[in-house]
Structures are given as C-alpha cells and as structure tokens.
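User: My instructor asked us to take a sequence, write out its structure as tokens, and then describe one feature of it. I'm not sure where to start. Here is the sequence I was given:
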Amino acid sequence: MSLVVAWAVFALAAAAAGADDAPLKVSSRALHDGRINPMLFGNFIELLDDLVPGMWAEMLNDRGFEGITQPARWVYHDGSPTVCDRPWDPSDDWVVETTGSFNGPRSARITAREGRAASLTQSGLAVQKGSAYQFSGALRSDGGRLKVQVVLKAALPDGRFAELAVAELPDPPASWTRCTATLEATGTTDQAIFELRVVGQGVVWVDKLSLMSAANLGGWRPDVVAAIRASRPAIIRWGGSAVDPGGYRWKDGIGDRDRRVPFANVHWGRIDPNDVGIDEFCQFCALVAAEPLVCLSFSDGPASAADLVQYCNGGPETPWGARRAANGHAAPYRVKYWQLGNELSGDDDAYIQRCREFIRLMKQADPGVALFSSFPSQKVLDALGKDLAYVAPHHYTRDLAACAADFRRLAGMIARTPSCGHLRVAVTEWNFTGGDWGLMRAKMLTLDGALLNARYLNLLCRSSDIVDIGCRSNMTNSFCSGIIGTRPGDLLKRPSYYVMKLYADHARPIPLTVGSVPAGVDVVACAGEDRQGVCLFAVNSRNEPVVLALDLTELGEGFVPLGGETVADTLDLRQPDAMNHWNAAARIRAADLRPMGNRVTLPALSVSAIECGRRANSSRE
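Assistant: Let's start with the prediction itself. The structure tokens for your sequence are:
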C-alpha cells in the first residue's frame, strides 16, 4: 500500500470516528515577543571518526601511510568498517619507509624487478562510467629504469582484472616531485581498485597519494553539498571535543593539504589526515548557504584565537589576511560567530581573566565578532556578560522539561544581571543522547530518534524569546548521530534529515499561542509577520493516527488547512525503531499532507508541517 493511499484510509476511518479531542484552537496572539530564528535549525561538524572523511571527496584512505588506528573503545560501533578503516592492500611489492618522507614520518617504498610489475593497491573505491578522477602524489626514485602508471581496475569473476582507466606518470626523479594525472573510468563499480603500478627495475617512493572525482566542489562531495544545502541549516558549528580537550591547532590545518601533518585525534581515536581545516569548513558553509560558527581552542590561547579571527576576516593587507590570500582565498570569510572553547566551565579568577584576554584580542582583530561563552555561569555573566553575545549550553537528554527549565534559568540569570539584557542563548550542541554508548546511541538512526529531535525543535520554537541558535549534533555518520550517512559513491538520508529539513522549510518567525492538544501530540504554531500564512508543527508520538480538528477562526475569515508535509514510515508498520538503511533508503521520508476540511490526519509516529491560509492566497511568504 502506498504512503498516500495508506494515510487516506486512516483519514477516512478517523474522520468517521471523530477527532481524538476538541478542536485545536490556533490563536492569532503571539506566544511571546521573540522571533523564531532560522538558525534554530542549524547543524554541527567536528573532527570525529568518519564524519569529515564521509563528506570529503578524497577517495584514498591513509594517503600518507601513517597507518590505521581504531576509534576510541568507549564509542558505539557496530563493527562495520568505514572509509577510515580501508587499508592499503598488503603485498611483498611495498613496505612502509620511516625516513626521508615527503611529509610526515612515513612514505611507501615500492620495489620493482625486471619482468614483473610491482603494485601498490587500495580496494573498495566507487567509480562511475564516463566520470573523470584526478590523481596527485609525491614520487621519487633511485634512478632505475622505471615506468609508473596509475590504474583503476575491477576484479572479474574468473580472477582476472578489467582495467577501467590507465594514465602514465612522468619518470620519477631522485628528489620528491609532485605528479598529477586524470583518469576517465570506462565502467561503473563500487568495488574499484586503485593501483600505482611500477614497471622496470628499481625503487620508487610515494607519499601523499590522492584521488578525487573531478566533480568535487572545493574538495567536498557534490552529493553531500546538495543534500545539506537542501536541508537548509542556517548555521553550522565547527569544533567540538577535538578542539577542547583534544588540543587541535588551526594553524596546522591551513595551506597546501599535502604539506599538513596528520595528527592523532586523542579524544575520538583515529589518525586525522588534516585535509580539512578552517578554509575548507568556511568554503563548505558558503556552498550550502550557512553561517559558520567557529569553536575556538581555549588551550591554544587568546593570541592564536585573534590570529584566526584575522585569518578569517582580515583584509589581504593584514598579516593573517595575507596568509589566507596566499592560501588561495583573497576575500575574507566574514565569520561573525565564535565560541570560547568547547564544554568548558569555570568560576575561578584565572578562567575569567583568560576569557577577558580572548575577548580583548579578538575584538581588536574584528570589533564586529559575536562571542559565545562555553557553559554559562552567573560569575561568567557578572564579569563578561556585557562583552558576550550568547551563552551556550549543550543539551544531550530526552528530558525536555529539564531543557525548558534550563532555558528559563538562563533567561532569569540574564534578566537580573546588569548590562546583560542583550544576551541570547545558543545551544551549540544538542541531541537526545550524546555519550550513551550502547544501543541508545544507535537510536539516533531511528524514526523514534527523529520524533525526539522534532519535539526538541518544538521546544526551541516555544523558547525563541531567549534562544536564537541550535546546532544539532551531528551532520554525517559520526557513530549513528549524523542526519546523513555516506559510503563510497552513495548517500543515505536518515529520518532526522527529513525532520530538520521540514522545520527549516516551513518555519515562520512569529510563534503563536495554541490551545490544548491531544495526549501524545506536541504542537507549535508560527506565522509570518503579516499573519497571512501559518504553519503548525505537530509531532505524533502515538502508535496510531491522530486526527486534529483545527479551529482557525481567530486567524481570519477563510483560514483553512491547505496542505503541508509529513515525515513518517511509508510502510506504516508502527515500529519506533524503524530506520532507513542502504537497502531501503527512503522508507522514512517526507510526503504530502492532505487535509480533509478543517481536519488533518497525523500518521502514527510522525512529524508534520501543516500549512494554513486562505485558499485564494495559498502561497507562503
């Protein structure tokens, strides 16, 4: 049964029985004086396992031969290998060299013998027929009689290999030389093998090998850019635990990526290739039309933070602006939003004084920056509140009452602190769990997890008198928390993806007052400034459809439900733990919502955006 047909059946049955409760009255009266900021529906990127590698267009793992380490043992992991686990295939043809590398501590030494080609290979790549792939790498040789090729091939059932693309490289000299080539695939497979083939007699050393689709967007996967841009996160945070307490240093992640040194991610595990730094992040934000929010390393110090502000925002005549221009981006990134450290709190005088120095130096670099606390406290507000723009709690809980109480506590703290009336709240990380490293972590992949996310978004909308920013954790992969999942050549939209997109697509600035709602249903309403269009976000956590009879008379004559979208299980199997997976990628997705008169049927376990207006003028603002 199709989703539309199934919901029509439910609507008819529910309408015959009558609505679950009295009509839900939607008032034209604003809930409060605040506005629903589009930045409430933001997201979060951090250097965590396969989060960034799953978005980045690099097809080769361990391209500097540093080796593969496992994620930290305390994280949830189902045992499936990710792109970060893909090794160079073992062979007698090559070994790791620990001296004289192009960059970092290691390179690979390939030894070729007359009459037999030597190969360095990596398996499990995805290529498309007719697509071009750009190879680059650093090579040197011992001066022997050598020819070097880069090859894309696929294994055949009989044990032979079909070559999909071959390119000749220049004969490698005795000193490190960067080589490039373009490969055009003659076939499609998600099990392609990359081969660096050496023919002749002698030794070739290779380092910093790279293979990217020529269609990459500034190094990012086009399918990732398209999916995230469509979900419309108005703000994206960069930072997290690799920054504090992990000790990430931004200056190590700028310039030629082949000259950046990989580093151990001490908090999350893995060796990070350091291919993606502040430039790449800001450029990604531009590609998806989001504001960047940068979380600074507190341990890196105020002077480094001021240098980063200048690097991002200074003109090319400034020292760090000139460095940015030399790195290929003459125009400033104009990063407005900055957070002082990740998940730090401190009421001691030394902490306060260090924050003051951050504020002083960063505002010298750019007086227009908006600065965030880490975890807020009364002492921080007393001492620093006049110079901050936001206080920034993190919420990782299913207890929405506790989150609401926290917002009211912060609002009270701001109201009673002199010179702090301008402060707003930014929840720079949130989800219904964070460190619950068992099956609850995997719950973030499910329909139930998406419903929990929607209920928190409803809370943010209701709390928009004090809250301006929300960054859901996380964007991609990242131990089940991503709104999208990726693998070579493929992308999967999780149930939470459709929920985040639903709110970003349909939210309006003015929160409205609504009457009582049926048990198990959570509703917020919002309107445009002229009140000509209204949207209700309705979360049905019940294991059965619910019919909402809407009373829209206060909104004006002729106001009716016009349609909208709903995110639910297309199979309607009433399974909270249902999820999208690679063999059923669109089981949970958004579909059209079709009202019947003033009644709207909310499918079981669903999140709906109900658009209301006058039929003669049904367009949204």
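For the description part of your assignment, you could build on this observation: The CA atoms of residues 155 and 416 lie 70 Å apart. Try explaining in your own words what that tells you about the chain.
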